[in-house]
Design a protein that fits this description.
The chain is of the alpha/beta class. Helix content is 39%, strand content 19%. α2 packs across α3 and α7 crosses α9. It has a seven-stranded parallel sheet with strand order 3-2-1-4-5-6-11, with helices on both faces. A two-stranded parallel sheet has the order 7-10. The longest helix is centred in the N-terminal third of the chain and has 21 residues. Pfam families: Epimerase (PF01370).
Length: 307
């Protein structure tokens, strides 16, 4: 079986490649630049948002892919940048898949932020109408909607995994946890105090390696075409707990930490909790890695130790 992973060098993509390799698949990564962790995979250096659909179709079809995973896109500073790297990319990918004489399963990585802010206590299920309010969330919803529209029209076979916030090894530098980890490392290096503003927020977090396992299962699961499937832990965890686990992993002295409350300033509001019942039923999937272990793994890998 062959899988083509788009965005193979990113935080999610590298774990998806590793998961498929562990299951014995022929893995081919696609990204704008190569990376050392892809040495055991096939690789194509390609800017997917700029490439013509025919060029993308060649990568997917020679030899034929059984599964295509879209973990590409990344972050951007403006709505225009995100539209280019996410929506333009997905539209070209849909065109490319339509050119193929066969129909691989497309697994598209969406985001919990597509739902938009909700009242505390809300359980986010897949049939809840999305109401995103930030540019990032709106663009992510547009990309997922483009995939679902094509799937429901019979143009392609696709499933959207709407993933919670992620923790675990090799987080994207723009993420909250990666930024916090960098601040802790700097405070350690200079022997100073660490000032933390911690919002009174609770969010669903899931380890990126659990997400990768969900991707593998979604690639072969029957009766998921045209569906959204939530991937999370189904729990709203206080942000302060994540901060505490990261300080614990770093062995940072508690008497050098100054904490204060802060307003919520993020893409996700102050509450997210995903209903993951559909993932359990259709993918036979459930998260296995505890969040404390996930946060500790993030710190270890950032400092050259095994996860």
């Amino acid at each position: 079986m062959r899988v083509v992973v788009l965005g193979a060098t990113g935080s999610v993509g590298r774990q998806v490649c590793a998961a498929y390799q562990a299951h014995g698949w022929d893995v081919h990564g696609v990204a704008r630049r190569p990376a050392p962790h892809l040495s055991g995979c096939g690789f194509t250096e390609l800017d997917l948002a700029a490439a013509a659909p025919g060029r993308i179709a060649t990568v997917l079809g020679d030899p034929p892919a059984d599964v295509v995973v879209n973990a590409a896109g990344g972050w951007g500073d403006t709505e225009e940048e995100m539209t280019y790297s996410h929506l333009r990319l997905v539209r070209r990918l849909v065109e490319a898949l339509a050119l193929l004489p066969f129909r691989p399963r497309l697994v598209h990585l969406g985001s919990v932020h597509e739902y938009g802010p909700v009242p505390a206590g809300t359980l986010l299920h897949e049939d809840l109408p999305p109401e995103p309010v930030t540019p990032y969330a709106r663009v992510k919803l547009e990309t997922s909607s483009a995939v679902l529209t094509a799937a429901r029209a019979g143009v392609l076979d696709a499933v959207v995994l709407r993933a919670a916030n992620m923790s675990g090894p090799h987080p994207p530098q723009e993420s909250f946890l990666a930024a916090l980890m960098a601040r802790i490392s700097t405070a350690f290096a200079h022997g100073g105090r660490l000032e933390l503003s911690v919002a009174d927020a609770r969010r669903d977090f899931v380890d990126v390696r659990d997400v990768a396992q969900a991707v593998v299962r979604a690639g072969r699961a029957p009766a998921v075409g045209g569906l959204v499937v939530n991937i999370g832990r189904g729990d709203a965890v206080p942000i302060g707990d994540l901060v505490g686990w990261l300080l614990e992993a770093a062995a940072f002295p508690e008497d050098r930490v100054d904490r204060r409350e802060a307003p919520v300033r993020s893409k996700g509001g102050d509450w997210t909790r995903l209903d993951i019942g559909r993932a359990r039923r259709l993918l036979s999937w459930a998260p296995r890695i505890g969040l404390r272990d996930s946060v500790h793994s993030m710190w270890r890998t950032a400092h050259g130790a095994p996860a």
